[in-house]
Amino acid sequence: FFALPRFLERVLCTVDGERQRSAQSAEAVCFERERESTLRERSFCPSFFFFLQKSELYSIHKEYIHITEIMSACYHQSAASMARQSSFASSSSCRRDEHRSASRISSKATRRRRRQKGDNSTVVTKNALVPGPDDQKVQRNPRPEYIPGKIQDPRYVRVFDTTLRDGEQSPGATLTSTEKVQIATNLAKLGVDIIEAGFPIASPDDLEAVRNIAKVVGNKVYEDGYVPVICGLSRANEKDIACAWEGVRHAVRPRIHTFIATSPIHMEYKLKKTPDEVVNIAVKAVKFAKSLGCEDIEFSPEDAGRSEPEFLYRILKAVVDAGATTINIPDTVGFCLPDEFGRLIKGIKENVIDVSANDAIISTHCQNDLGLSTANSLAGIANGARQVECTINGIGERAGNASLEEIAMSVIMRGQNQLNGAYMGVNPVYIYQTSRMVSEYSGMLVQPHKAIVGANAFAHESGIHQDGMLKNKSTYEIIAPETIGVFRDEDDCGVVMGKHSGRHALKSKLGQMGVTLADDQLNAFFDRFKLVAETKTGGVSDVELMALLRDEMEVEEGKEFYTLVDVQVVCGTMGLPTATVKIIDQGTERISACVGTGPVDAVYKAIDAVVGKSVELTEYNVKAVTQGIESLATTRVTIKPTDESTAETITNNQTEARGTRTFTATGADTDIVVSSARAYLSALNRMLSSNAKLTTTSGSSSLIESSSSEIVSR
After folding, report:
1. What is the pTM of this model?
2. CA angle, 509 as apex, 506 and 512 as ends, to 5°?
3. Which end of the chain is more exposed for a tag (fewer CB within 10 A), N or C?
4. Short-list 384, 362, 367, 348, CA closest to 376
5. Segment 54-88, tens digit of pLDDT
6. Burial class (CB in 10 A: 0-12, 13-18, 19+), 707
C-alpha cells in the first residue's frame, strides 16, 4: 500500500497531456466505448487494487472503470466542489451507510427488456398515490346550479382552491404540468367549485399547465352536472388578462381573476399610484376581461385587510358596476383578527353588494401569518361571504393560506348550528387522498399534529384517551377517520410485499392504492421492486412502494433526455471520493468519472460532465421513508440554471419581481448515493424539458399581444 504515492505520481505524469486538454472541464472526464479496450490494457499497482477492493468492485464495472482517468480528475479539484458540499450539509434522518462501495440501480434484465421493446411508455396513475375511496361508490354532495355572481341558495358557500397557484408559491414547492393536472383531477373529485390553475403570465410552462387543466379537468362533466370552474390569475393590465384568458377559455366554465393593491402602503411604495388612478386601472381591467368574452370575473383589492374601508367600498362598487361577478377580500399579510375581519366583510356586504345594481359574490382570502387564516375565513362566512379561497394542507406564501380541509370540516361539523346553516358541496372522503398527493408532489411535508390530515390527527397515546376510545370512539374523536378517507393505518394495509412477491401480488397491491399500470409498465416497475426487495429483510412497506413508484414516474418523465443506468462510488478515509456513472443519452451510452468532496458531490459532477449544463444546487434533502437502517431513502433536490441565456424567468404575482425558475425532483433507493443521483438527473431532465417547451411556446406571447392590440383598436 505504501507504493500508492509513487503510483499516483506515475499516473499523473502519464495523463499530463490529457489534463491540459481538459483544463476547462477539470471536474470530470468523459470517455466513450471505443476507448475502453485501450484503457483496460493499462497496468496498475496491485496494492492500489487492494485499496479499491478489486474483487468486489472492479469486476462489477470492468466494462468502463478506468482508474487512471479518475486520478487525472483528482488532479483537477476546484474550489467549486466545496460550495456544493456545503449544500450537502443539510440534515438527514437516514441511518445507513452512505458510503457503500458499489450500487446497481437497475438489473440487466430490465435494461434488456426495455431495449428490445423500445419502451417509451409513461406511468399512468388513476388516483393519488395513497389508498382512496372507490369512485363508483362515492355519493357526491349536492350543490346549487353554478351561476356567475349569484347563488340560488343563500346558505351555500363556494370553495375556491388556489393550491396550484398560491400554494405553489410556497418556498421550495414546484409542480410539473403533469402533476398539476393530476392534482386538479383530484380537486374535482373532492368537489371544489373553482380551481385557480395558475398565473399564466408567469411563464410559458404556467400558461401551458393552465391550458391543459382547462382542457382536461375543465371539460369533464360529472353525472350530477358538476364541472369545476377553471380560473387564471392576472394583474390589472391587458397583457396579463389576455394571457389568463388564453389559458382558461378552453374550459366549460372559465374565470379570470385580476387584482391590484389598495392599501396606502402598497399604493404609495409599490404602485406609486394615487387612489383615483388605482380605481381607474381596476375598472379598465374588469371591462377588458369582459370584452374578451369572459362572463365570470373576479376582482381582488390586494392587502384589503390594511386598506381604508371607505376606499374599499368605492373601488369594489366601481368594479361590480363594471362587470365583476366576485369580489375577493384578501388579508394578504394575515394582519386581521377574526372579529375585525368579520366586520370588514359585513361592511362590504352592506355598502357594496346591497346597494349595487349588479349581483356579486363576496369571497375571502386569508393568509396565516398570525395563525388565524381558518378563523378569519369562518368569520367571513358568518358575516356574509359565500366563497372562501384556500389551499390543500394550507400551503402558500410565507406562513401559508387558509387550509381547505380545516374550513371544509368546520363547516360540515358546525355550519348548521353556528354559521347560519352554511354548507359546502365538497366530498370529504377525498380530503386525505388529495392532501397526500399535494404533499408528495410539492415536497411540502405535513406536520404530524396538523388538524384533519396530520399523522397524529387520529392517534391516541394517553392511557385515559385510549381507555375512552376502547369504550366509545366518539369520546375523543369528533370526526371519524373514514369521513376524510383514512380507511386504515399505513402499517396495516394488508399483505407485506417482499422479494418472494410476484407480479400479480404487486398489481393487486397497487390496485388497492389506486394505481393502475399497463402491462409493460408493470413489468418494468416489477424489476425495480424486486431489486429493492432483495436488499430488505422486512419487506417493502406501502409507503416505500409509493416512493419507488414516484421515483419511477420521475425517470419516465425524463426518458427522452437522459436515463441513469449505473452508479459506482469509492470513498472513505483512505482516498479521494470518486464516482463513475453510466448514462443513456438518447440511445447512446456515455460514461463519466470524476472526484468530489464526497460521494454525492462526485456523482453530481460526473452527471454534469455528461449533461453539459451549468446549474446551481439550491436544495438537497435526504430522509428515510420508514424507520430502521434498511429503510428506503428519498432524496429531494432543487436546481437553478446559471446560464442566463437558457434560464427561464418567472414573475412573482405579488411583488412583480422576475426571477430564475428552479426545478425540483425526487429520487428513491435503498442507497443514499443512488437516490441522490436519480433525483439530480430527474431535476436536470425537467429543466431540459422545460427549455424544450419554452422554444415551442415562444410564439404564444406575440399572438396574445397582437390579439390584445386588435381588441383595443376596435
Report:
1. 0.68
2. 150
3. C
4. 367
5. 334 344 344 333 443 444 344 343 333 433 443 43
6. middle
